[in-house]
Amino acid sequence: MGELLLGAFALMLVFEGLLPFLSPALWRSVFARAMQLTDGQIRFVGLASMAIGLLLLLVWR
Questions:
Q1: Structural domain count, the chain
Q2: Residue 58 in 3-state DSSP?
Q3: Which end of the chain, N or C, is less surrounded by CB atoms within 10 Å?
Q4: The domain containing residue 14 runs over which residues?
């Protein structure tokens, strides 16, 4: 069960990272607090989230 939850968490991180990486303007409009961040910072958050998710998937598999 723990491995399944880790896999689900990893996939969640990948999917959560897609929107800020691909479309920082849309992500910024959804999350008003992110308005203070630059596009580069938002892209970094998205990239980091996807990388962590992919690493977790590799560990899980």
A1: 1
A2: helix
A3: N
A4: 2-60
